[in-house]
Write a structure and sequence with these properties.
Blueprint (H helix, E strand, L loop, with lengths): L36 H4 L16 H9 L21 H10 L5 E2 L1 H15 L21 E2 H17 L6
Antiparallel strand pairs: 1-2
Length: 165
């Protein structure tokens, strides 16, 4: 994807495609996460985007290794961040880490599964949850435990050859 004029490297990025078949015809359109909008200088006022499909092996390799969205967090000229946390993410993190936020086992699994899938290779594996912060009247985890567990997974994956068991 790119938006004219393409003046810097992050204004052309390769996104992963996910087809949403359950939507009605009136909502079948190209969508992207708003964290990417700053790279394109897009502001939702009718911006025109160009979509390109890499056809050859070289184009597919360039898309994966040079212009993939996870590789476009810094402006090449000065190293300043161009993509990152948006106010929604910051608000969610604040609410999750408040003292009175407690999470059920089902929600804990739901929150951690995407983090584990993102750093795991191979078949899905069982989650080994940290011990709950509350045992009675029901098992409950804190939002801080979710964030700490996720950060630990990412650090283990980035700093070693893979997540530790």
């Amino acid at each position: 994807m790119n938006r004219q004029p393409t003046l810097h490297k992050p204004s052309m990025m390769a996104h992963e495609v996910r087809v949403l078949r359950h939507l009605p015809d009136s909502q079948q359109t190209i969508r992207m996460h708003y964290a990417n909008c700053n790279s394109y200088n897009a502001d939702f006022d009718g911006d025109e985007m160009n979509c390109h499909l890499p056809m050859g092996l070289v184009a597919k390799s360039e898309s994966k290794h040079i212009v993939a969205t996870p590789l476009q967090y810094m402006v090449p000229t000065d190293g300043s961040p161009i993509r990152g946390l948006i106010q929604d993410h910051v608000d969610a993190a604040v609410k999750m880490t408040q003292m009175d936020t407690f999470i059920s086992r089902a929600l804990m699994n739901q929150l951690l599964a995407p983090a584990i899938a993102a750093v795991s290779e191979g078949p899905p594996r069982l989650l080994r949850l940290p011990p709950p912060a509350l045992l009675k009247p029901m098992e409950r985890w804190t939002g801080k435990q979710v964030i700490a567990y996720t950060v630990d997974l990412v650090v283990q994956h980035c700093c070693t050859e893979g997540p530790k068991e």
